[in-house]
Design brief:
This protein has 287 residues and is α/β, with parallel strands linked by helices. Helices cover 44% and strands 20% of the residues. It has 11 helices and 10 strands. Keywords: Coiled coil.
């Protein structure tokens, strides 16, 4: 499957997903032993400060390398994990792994924020805050270098959401709302939630150049975030035109294939250098 992004055409090859051929029950059975068999890995996607044009952190994105089926995408197995309850174990593994990795990077002199996705079931678990606190203590990671991404759909019980968020904030971690604009976002709740960041969903970024309503929505979310003193991030930046638009409209941060796809930790150093080069070239073209 090739995607055409206008002038700078980029091709992303996506092999057929196992969800087309393997039934969910088999996936679930195999998922049970995936952690023990070391089949789960985290990839990391760099996040860029659009004003300073510098890498400021990464988002951890889970991958499942099945020995026979190959790579199973989180879009396929996270819903199964969520439904079966396996997400608790998998989510805790991912959180610990991400904190360990960020601690390693920090000790190497690369300080940045590590963002980790939480799914609804993880967020609603009564001992979430204790788990996060314990993992921070175990790994020795500074809480301010951990960001937790939640989605609007998690906020079924408003009172409980506020309490959990307040307790997480007290630990010192950063909270962001992922896929913002796609869920049920009452502005009243947004006002009450102690969150730090809004992540504009990639569906709005995709058509930025061609769909004037998407462009308006993006500008509006940025303005609203700033008025509420929130940081705003754009996901799914694939072209230099999208990058330029978001920079021009003062979006604080961005991530997407234009800068880098998610990569294993071992490739991050190389990726950082490539991004620095890319940003330098972009600047020179403008001057
Ligand atoms: P998300 O948190 O919204 O992550 C962004 C998704 O967009 C990732 O897909 C990422 O690879 C992809 N992406 C990044 N830049 C671009 C771009 O420029 N263009 C396009 N087309 N896509 C881009 P991925 O890795 O397949 O993850 C899908 C979702 O699975 C994530 O969405 C997140 O909700 C969930 N997920 C991933 N890892 C974890 C995890 O450790 N725990 C939990 N609970 N959920 C996870
Ligand atoms: Mg995310
Ligand atoms: Mg997410
Ligand atoms: Mg998202």
């Amino acid at each position: 499957q090739a995607k055409n992004n206008g002038r700078n055409t980029v091709h992303f090859y996506s092999p057929p997903d196992v969800s087309d051929t393997i039934n969910p029950l088999d996936l679930e059975i195999h998922l049970h032993s995936a952690i023990e068999r070391n089949e789960l890995v985290l990839h990391y996607q760099p996040k860029i400060d659009l004003e300073k044009e510098d890498i400021i952190g990464v988002e951890a994105l889970i991958r499942w390398n099945h020995p026979k089926w190959g790579v199973v995408s989180p879009g396929t197995f996270i819903p199964i994990a969520e439904e079966s309850g396996l997400i608790i174990k998998i989510g805790e593994w991912a959180l610990r792994e991400a904190c360990i990795q960020n601690k390693i990077w920090q000790e190497q002199g690369i300080t940045g924020v590590m963002s980790v996705n939480l799914s609804p079931r993880q967020f609603q678990k009564v001992d979430l805050v204790e788990t996060v606190e314990r993992i921070l203590l175990e790994t020795g990671l500074q809480p301010s270098l951990l960001e937790l991404e939640i989605t609007e759909s998690m906020t079924v019980n408003i009172e409980q959401t506020i309490t959990t968020l307040q307790r997480l904030k007290k630990l010192g971690v950063i909270i962001s709302i992922d896929d913002f604009g796609t869920g049920f976002s009452s502005l009243n709740y947004l006002k009450q939630f102690p969150v730090d960041t809004l992540k504009i969903d990639q569906s709005f970024v995709r058509e930025l150049q061609t769909d004037t309503s998407d462009a308006t929505i993006v500008k509006t979310i940025i303005a609203m975030a700033h008025n509420l003193k929130l940081n705003v991030v754009a996901e799914g930046i694939e072209t230099k035109e999208q990058f330029a638009f978001l920079q021009q409209h003062l979006c604080n941060e961005g991530q997407g294939f234009f800068f880098s796809q998610p990569v294993p930790a071992s490739e991050m150093q190389e990726r950082r250098l490539e991004i620095k080069k890319l940003l330098k070239t972009q600047r020179e073209l403008l001057n």
